[in-house]
Amino acid sequence: xxxxxxxxxxxxxxxLRNLWxxxxxxxxxxxxxxxxxxxxxxxxxxxxxxxxxxxxLNDLLGKRQSQAWIVLDKxxxxxxxxxxxxxxxxSHLMQTCMECQSTYKNIKFxxxxxxxxWASLSFTNKTHLSDKTLNLxxxxxxxxxxxxxxxxxxxxxxxxxxxxxxDCKDFDVDTMRVETQEAVFYTIFDSQIYKGANEATSLGWxxxxxxxxxxxxxxxxxxxxxxxxxxxQVIPRHDCLIEGASIRDAYxxxxxxRCENYLAEFPAFNGHFEAFSGKTTSxxxxxxxxSMFKGLEPRFEAAVRELSTNVGLLRPLDGKxxxxxxxxxxxxxxxxxxxxxxxxxx
Length: 346
Fold this sequence. Notes:
Layout: H1 12-23, E1 30-33, E2 37-40, H2 50-63, E3 68-72, H3 83-103, E4 107-111, H4 115-120, H5 140-152, H6 155-164, H7 178-188, H8 202-208, H9 219-232, H10 244-261, H11 270-274, E5 283-285, H12 286-292, H13 300-311, E6 315-316, E7 327-329, H14 332-335
Parallel strand pairs: 3-4
Antiparallel strand pairs: 1-2, 5-7, 6-7
Helix pairs in contact: 5-7, 5-9, 9-10
């Protein structure tokens, strides 16, 4: 915060120190860390020095021939309504982590960031991290396991599945075979939204409608499908707890919440999002988008680039990039939430 100039008034520091003293006691000079024992942390003016803490931890780890990880998660939630400020803060954070990594060889920093935010960051020596990044993706098996774990925590759901699948002895999702997971999943959820040999399974249907234009599908929307569809289901069917119609109806709420929560992180594009409201198709030509975005900032080229490569709202068609594509698709995840009215199935 000091680096980016957002903490010019330092009076908050003595306030926090006094508050700590009132509630907890004096700032400790020795802290017990479970896997390291006791370590002194306060030598400078009786205050805690992060540099001293890291130095001593690194030294002690080296003597024990061990390493420690410092994991940073949910940091993309800072400045949620100001992408520029967030990017600047995170860029400085990444530089700090790189400097600490080189200074404290036994302490490894692990930072979790959304891929779209990582792509938007700009800082010195970012390319040095290119071969040190790992892209975590949620595939079909992991998403199914996620929903099962959450559902089977409920004792009534677990008992229902045991009664329906009496040949199944193992209801630990982590040790289940894929075939068993499938059987349990489709005991809880209807096997299909629409019946037919060529129709998608309910899991596939949900995944398709939780995927953005970058191909990303995340737990939040899948969990929403589970929670909302279970609320829609008044009386369980004889062969499953949640029928296809309830999952189908949950789509509209999932799409609305996705647009309200995620797209709110990009206030600069509010006008662009509103331009889709009332449209009767989810496909648009480049000329149509030019007309829809006329007079808006950012202007057309910059808007299409961001909506395609970072936001995940526009998918270029015909295998082309956003710069050359003549047609674009709005993923089903956003269609209802943006107020696009299409005929037929959601």
